Amino acid sequence: MMYQATAYDDRDELIRSHLNFVEIVVQRMRPQIPGFISLDELKSAAMYGLMEAAGRFDPGKGVLFKTYAEVRIRGAVLDEVRKMDWFSRSMREKHNQVIGAIKRLEQELGREPSEEEIAAAMGLGLEEYQKILNEIGHLGFVSLYETLTGFSKGETFLDQLKDEQAKSPEEEVVLQELTRELAVQLQGLSEKERLVLTLFYYEGFTQKEIADVLDLSEGRISQLHSQALLKLKAGMQA
To answer: Same domain, yes or no, for 81 and 96?
Structure first.
């Protein structure tokens, strides 16, 4: 009983000491979330993510709680947004068309296609293709946080980039294969695409901050971000 009480005390302290962090993460995510979703709704979902992180956190894995919590908070917010099904059928069709074009080109070329090649394969001009990337960007944003099937504890693609440990030999083999394949897919991205993902997911930069670092517009960063995740999704599905 004493151990259980201590565990709950630790969990509550983690939550209390990171309430301000929830606000920071929500504010970072706000520009990528459709305006019709209220700030209160985002904060509510983020708080759920923080509580989930506090309950599952294992300090023995050598990962800072703030790092672990940010992944869970972002995932909880995006799960809530996804439940609201903000994408119209036409947006989903465009998303699937881009994924299909990337898959076909990967098979034909034996490498990751450039955006010019993807646009041509879809019968679009480059500017028209980039406009579609902006329109479907939020759906791509969700993909790196999608929960993996076959596991009961909500592991995501991003979790596997940070922690390759598994609870059983069978899961360990699957996760190791997933990690290797994801690493291969990441290497196939362009240098700018990899840099955008690194700064966004690992360094916690906002798209505006990344735009300043790379001396590009926020719109262009959004396009690179969306395209990189669409390529990863197409590669992992294949």
So the answer is: no
Q: Tokens representing 80?
A: 């809530």
**Do 55 and 102 lie in a common domain?**
no
- Do 36 and 104 sit in the same domain of this protein? no
pLDDT tens digits for range 28-57:
887 767 666 778 888 888 998 999 888 888
Structural domains in the chain (count): 2
Per residue in 72-93, pLDDT tens? 898 888 877 777 655 566 777 8
Long-range contacts formed by 22-31: CB under 8 A, 24+ apart:
22/46, 22/47, 22/49, 22/50, 22/73, 25/70, 25/73, 25/74, 25/77, 26/73, 26/77, 28/204, 28/206, 29/74, 29/77, 31/206, 31/207, 31/208
Question: Which range of residues forms the domain containing residue 101?
Answer: 87-238
